[in-house]
Structure formats: structure tokens, C-alpha cells
Amino acid sequence: MIKQSSLYDTAYYNDIKEGSLESARQLVPVIMQFIQPTSVVDIGCGIGTWLSVFEQIGIKDIAGMDGAHVKQEILLIDKKKFIAVDFSKGFATSKKYDLAVCLEVAEHIQPEYATNFISSLCEAADLVLFSAALPGQGGTQHVNEQYPSYWAALFQKNGFVAYDVLRKIIWNNKKVDTCYRQNIFFAVKEKEAEKYPAISSVQKGIWDIVHPEHFQRKEEILVSYQRVLRTPFHTVWHFIKKTGKFLFRKKS
Prior knowledge:
- The protein contains ten helices and seven strands.
- The chain is an alpha/beta fold and 252 residues long.
- A seven-stranded mixed beta sheet has the order 3-2-1-4-5-7-6, sandwiched between helices.
- Helix 2 (10-31) packs parallel to helix 3 (49-56) and helix 4 crosses helix 5.
């Protein structure tokens, strides 16, 4: 088994930091049009990029939860507000928050633990901001890529309903990472839906759709492989070039 610390190291978080921060800066004001939380917990917070933006707009009651592999010296939030957990065993927050955030995390959870993970998430807040990688999206250690309807069904088992109110607003905002524009939705506890009229007034449910930019990237990858594999000669030559570049980097 590969240690998470070797996959999610400082370099990994540095690579995604700016994109995540800019996405949060664009999206948090949009989220605040629908809700005005005074407390936020981020499940799978990484180094706390999204929480840091919530803090910047004045929400001080925050908490972040992620694996023990996250190095505290690179956190963007106070280390006292970070809690190390093993999500495969489920998790529990110390209290119920106004908003639970879980973005591009659930695809990292083994399928057999997905139900418990969503149940734990529903215990953290009556309102959840959620997104997870869909099939073929790709990424580091994705073990359960699913369409949004899969996750919506798990939320439904906990009495939560999915509302697709954000994507139409941010769909064409290129400052927001494609994964969020493609996958994000609210899950609201059905018995408490009247507390969130700006969300619950919209038709329930979520569409399984692929963003054109994601589709285009996958198509470009496919075309590049088709070029490489069009003849045995091109395949061998591609392999030689890749091996040569690897050996050169290793020597240098």
C-alpha cells in the first residue's frame, strides 16, 4: 500500500494551491448569496485553502479535517483549527456547523467506506457543499470516481436532497477550476430545507453532465495517444524519447 504522505506531499499541495485559492475566492462570494454561515467545517481540507478564504470574509468559527499526512507547517489556517482523521473509519465533528464543505475528496475514499463517509458528513451540518470527481476525471489516488447522482443517492439515504444551483452561475468562469464547475452542488437536510429558501426554492436533483473543457482535455489526450500508436515505429520512438528524458533528468 502506498503511503499517503508520499502522494500528498508539499509539492502536491503547492501544485494545486493557487488554483484552489482562486476558485475559492471566486466561489465563496457566490455561496454567500445563498447562505450566510457563521461556522464552517471543511472535510478533506488539505492545507486549508477554502477555509482561509472563508476566514478572510469574516467567518472565524472554522475547522478543517484531513489525514495526518498534511504537514502543519504548510497550513493556511491556524494549526489549532486542524484535526487529523482517518476518513475510512468515519469521522465525527465536535459540534454541528452551519455549513460543511467537502470538495473533490470523496473520490479518494474506498467504495466500501463511501456510505459511512457521507453519513458522517451529514452529521456535521444540515447543509453540505459537495463535489467529487466523475468517472474518467483522473487525479491522484482516485479510487471511487462517480457521477453526482451516485453521491446524491447516498445523501438521500440520510434524508438530504441535492440542489443544483451553483453550476449555472460559475459554469463559464474560467477562474474556477473545471472540477468545481462540473461537479459542485448543495445537499440540504430535507426536514430543514425551509431554512434555506434561496436553495430549496430551486427544483430538486442534479444532472450528470460533463463540462466541455474536461471533455476537450480528454479528447486531446486520446488524439495524442492515437498519434503515438499509429504505427509500431512511432510507438517505439515515443518510448525511446520518454526513457531518454527520464534518464537525462535522473543524471542531472
